[in-house]
Amino acid sequence: AELSYYDFLNVMLGRKRFKVSIWLYDISNGVAARWSWLLLGQRFEGIWHSGVVVEWPDRTSEFWFGGSLFESRPGSTPFGEPLERRSMGYTYKPREEVWDHVKRHLASEFTAEKYDVLTHNCNHFSEKLSMFLRNEHIPDEVLHQPDMVMSKPLPRLLRPLLNRWLGGFASEDGR
């Protein structure tokens, strides 16, 4: 297997690598797969909420955004079981470094006031965290799903309701 320059440096510095994946939850509970073609003119397998999962030796954590930033035990979010678990590869960043980045760089950007179901949601947070962890994007069909439906009338009508529901998980501390 080939090592990138980044991976080579981390190995030479003695850093351990940790598995990273993105977990995808269908917040429509199957409705999108059945009705999206009729309602939106395009078929979607799900309406995605995403969380980034990192497997450290002492703890496996799922990071997600829902009006506040959270670190949860994977699968314990309010969205039930993920429909998909996609491997994203590995990171060399320990948990403390990830939380430092979340607090210093992402916490002020991802707040309840800035939440928008179409333009600033959990998938945008997952994208930023994935870029920090891996320097790789999350799947296009997840990140750009809102762009695909923005021109349709139904999402525009439901936008205020969805913002209240999906942006309302705020808490004092996301841990």
UniProtKB/TrEMBL annotation:
Recorded GO MF terms: peptidase activity
Similarity remark: Belongs to the DeSI family.
Naturally occurring in which organism (per UniProt): Alexandrium catenella (Red tide dinoflagellate)
InterPro entries: PPPDE_dom, PPPDE_sf
Lineage: Eukaryota, Sar, Alveolata, Dinophyceae, Gonyaulacales
Protein name: PPPDE domain-containing protein
Keywords: Hydrolase, Protease
Residue stretches making up the PPPDE domain: 18-163
SMART domains referenced in this protein's UniProt entry, alphabetically: DUF862 (SM01179)
One record GO biological process: proteolysis
